[in-house]
Amino acid sequence: MYNKRILTIAHRGAAGDAPENTLAAFRLGLEQGCDAIELDVHLSKDGEIVVCHDHTINRTSDRSGAICELTVDELKQADAGSWFHERYEGEQIPLLEEVFELVPPDVMINIEIKDSRGRKLEPVLIELMKRNNRIENVVVSSFDHKSLVFLKLLEEEVKLGLLYDCNPVRHSLMAATAEVPIYSLHPNFKRLGNEDVRDVIEQGLQVYPYTINDEDLMANAINYGVSGIITDYPGRLKRLLDQIAA
Ligand code: G3P
Ligand code: MG
After folding, report:
1. Angle at 84 (CA atoms; ends 161, 106), nearest 5 degrees
2. If you take atom 10 of ligand 1, which residue's CA is the nearest one?
3. 56, 128 in Cβ contact below 8 A?
4. CATH superfamily ID and name for 7-245
5. Which of 91, 150, 191, 207 is 20 to 30 Å from the Cα of 143, by its Cα?
6. Omega of the bond prior to 187 within 30 degrees of 0, cis?
7. pTM recorded for the entire structure
């Protein structure tokens, strides 16, 4: 049984049912009732923050090339929907600012920095978040923990999410919090352990494991006491939470 609000976090949008990291996927996540959206960011050749998982657009569009070598104009010519399904033909690679415009301010956004291009992305990101009033309800995460430290130096109020895929939780947590306070832990769900999670929750940190799509695994994570779950199927998680609450 769970007795607290567990966030449904739509991974790359509702990536199980729509082309990942597109406005269509974010819209669908919102329609399915998600509380938060996770997305991945890179810097374009002309210094804009664009939303895409890989460092190239090869897998998720009809064009090819590294994002850091393409301008926004060039990126916008790519069809980022057809590879998933023909009904998404014409879907574009979004700018982060377009996602800020789409997503209501009460829906949390988890921005995952994939490649900061030698620390060039962080100042642009902080500036963009401030300009769009998105310091409050955004968590910035990364496997690159030094990037998180840099963000905190740039803006003290920024909420940081520690992404990791190693064991045990305790070591990562100690290493990170020694340098800078973090808001949430984002472990690979395979690294979830009862004791570790309880420890960090007691310290007041949120725990958002990624990426759980199977119902039984979702139920396990809920029993562990996580604060939210990152999933490609937000509708599925919502239904499960509703069933448990009923
Ligand atoms: O932020 C959680 C998760 O998205 C990390 O892995 O590869 O799906 O970006 P990945
Ligand atoms: Mg991600």
Report:
1. 35
2. 53
3. no
4. Phosphatidylinositol (PI) phosphodiesterase (3.20.20.190)
5. 91
6. no
7. 0.95
Q: Please compute, for residue 146, the number of CA atoms within 13 A of its CA located in the half-sphere on the CB side.
A: 6
Q: Fill in the amino acid letter for 230.
A: I
For residue 2, what pLDDT is reported? Answer: 44
Query: Whole-angstrom Cα distance, residue 97 to residue 49?
Result: 8
Question: Mean pLDDT in runs of 10 for the chain (246 residues)?
Answer: 78 98 98 98 98 98 98 98 98 98 98 97 98 97 91 96 73 63 90 73 89 97 93 98 93
HSE-up of residue 53 (Cα within 13 Å, Cβ side): 14
**Ligand 1 atom with the shortest distance to the CA of 161:** 1
Q: Where are the domains of the chain?
A: 7-245
Ligand 1 nearest-atom number relative to CA 112? 1
Complex ipTM value: 0.99
Q: Look at residue 172 in the predicted model and tell me its pLDDT.
A: 57
Q: Using CA atoms, how far apart are residues 49 and 211, in angstroms rounded to an integer?
A: 24
CB 8 within 8 A of CB 229: yes
